[in-house]
Amino acid sequence: GKLGRYPPWPGKIVNPPKDLKKPRGKKCFFVKFFGTEDHAWIKVEQLKPYHPHKEEMIKINKGKRFQQAVDAVEEFLRKTKGKDQASSHNSNEEKNRRNSSEERGKQSAGEEKRKASLSEGKLKKGTGEGKKRVSSLSSERGSKSPLKRAQDQSPRKRGRPPKDEKDLTIPESSTVKRVMTGTVAGFKWPPSVRANEHCPSPECFVFCVQPAVCYQAITKKLKVCEEETGSTSIQAADSTAVNGSITPTDKKIGFLGLGLMGSGIVSNLLKMGHTVTVWNRTAEKCDLFIQEGARLGRTPAEVVSTCDITFACVSDPKAAKDLVLGPSGVLQGIRPGKCYVDMSTVDADTVTELAQVIVSRGGRFLEAPVSGNQQLSNDGMLVILAAGDRGLYEDCSSCFQAMGKTSFFLGEVGNAAKMMLIVNMVQGSFMATIAEGLTLAQVTGQSQQTLLDILNQGQLASIFLDQKCQNILQGNFKPDFYLKYIQKDLRLAIALGDSVNHPTPMAAAANEVYKRAKALDQSDNDMSAVYRAYIH
């Protein structure tokens, strides 16, 4: 699990590894999350007791993984309870044995005392010297009875335990119960818990409101900033938004298209507790999401008709039009009040046409193409560019928070398509330049690795630069962003420039290189495979 973006998750406070240092600052506990292999330092104020909040969290998080995690907690509690009962039974038996032994000791001591008294009485009849000896002996015995001597020989006297042992004391269950009854933000750990601050109790289970808060805090606040263009940026995409977690919309969500981007988006929608119905042209891709709690739609029309908001993410303008206008398409399911959000990267003309037909049937339309790649989609860190129905944009808030780190509202339909093409034009041209530089280094006898090291120390340093160079150096072109799609975006961006008589010579040159890479059968590889156009 990726702790920074998951919903509240059941965990257990445990002892950290000896070589793992505790973060400085606010009080933290080391938490193991059930149903995963994840561990993290969690701030006290981000923990909630398990039992009082269990039902509330189950209602919010309906995913299969979350339920499996709750089942794991319950199973652990059952096993722990069984061990406690067995331990209690053994403790009672030991106590009974000790009581019996003490009783026998008392009886033995009484018998010895009685014999000593009789012996002392007989000796009183003897001589004065004998009388003194006996009195001396009797006095010595009287000062220390057998029971008293046994106590003196004990390695420890009754009273306070040694200091080092006191520090290891685990709070009794009553203390734990007091801790567990209130919300964590409102209580202070009792002294006994602080003394053993790594592990208050094996019974202390928690819901982590904001996982992984003690690593690098990601605090994305909800902010709205009006730009000169009239566009609006809403940055509230992390699961920490506003109240520490995403509250999923109660609207039914549909999703059409489970490609590289769509798969990650749907996965995050489900993780954050949304109710999702999925459809894909190749139905087998739906199976994994059905197992995670999604519902299956037989056609796009069925998904739209049964859901409140339907998202779509497909490859190109033709696929986007076919999805809406084709047989059993989106348009057949549209009726007044139904909402359609197209996340595909297409040209402004295409998205405008789709908006018109959706609205003509009484539907609401929003375009929302995304900037990112497969990894960012999986991580829920996409950048969302939206335009169209502003009210629908706000209705999609929890969905955008689940799938992205930032979303921008850019005004009327078509603006988001234009902006997305410009962003991808810059990215595609940059990728072609990186490949050109690496091949030039190679043919002039320079180290490609050294070139990367130099770039990573300069102003061009970025995750994108490093990842794509590593792909080339390792010969690994597994798709994170298909080469054929970046070439499509370059082509559409050049056409956008032509429509307003604006020159795009850099994009045009890069486009030719990608076209050559496609001719070399690199279409279904990552965009970094454009490198191969230079070495063939």
UniProtKB/TrEMBL annotation:
Q: Which UniProt keywords apply?
A: Chromosome
The residue ranges of the PWWP domain are 1-53
Q: Which family does it belong to?
A: Belongs to the HIBADH-related family. NP60 subfamily.
Q: Which cell locations does it reside in?
A: Chromosome
Q: What is the lineage of its organism?
A: Eukaryota, Metazoa, Chordata, Craniata, Vertebrata
UniProt KW Membrane keyword:
no
Write one Gene Ontology MF term.
NADP binding
Q: Where is the composition biased (Basic and acidic residues)?
A: 79-132, 149-169
- InterPro entries per UniProt: 6-PGluconate_DH-like_C_sf, 6PGD_dom2, 6PGDH_NADP-bd, GLYR1_PWWP, HIBADH-like_NADP-bd, HIBADH-related_NP60_sf, NAD(P)-bd_dom_sf, PWWP_dom
Instruction: Return the annotated region ranges for Disordered.
Output: 1-23, 79-176
Q: Which domain of life is it from?
A: Eukaryota
From the Swiss-Prot or TrEMBL record, give the protein name.
Cytokine-like nuclear factor N-PAC
One GO biological process term is: transcription elongation-coupled chromatin remodeling
List the GO terms this entry assigns under cellular component, sorted alphabetically.
chromatin
Q: Which organism is it from?
A: Charadrius vociferus
Instruction: Give the primary localization class.
Output: nucleus
A single Pfam family it belongs to is NAD_binding_11
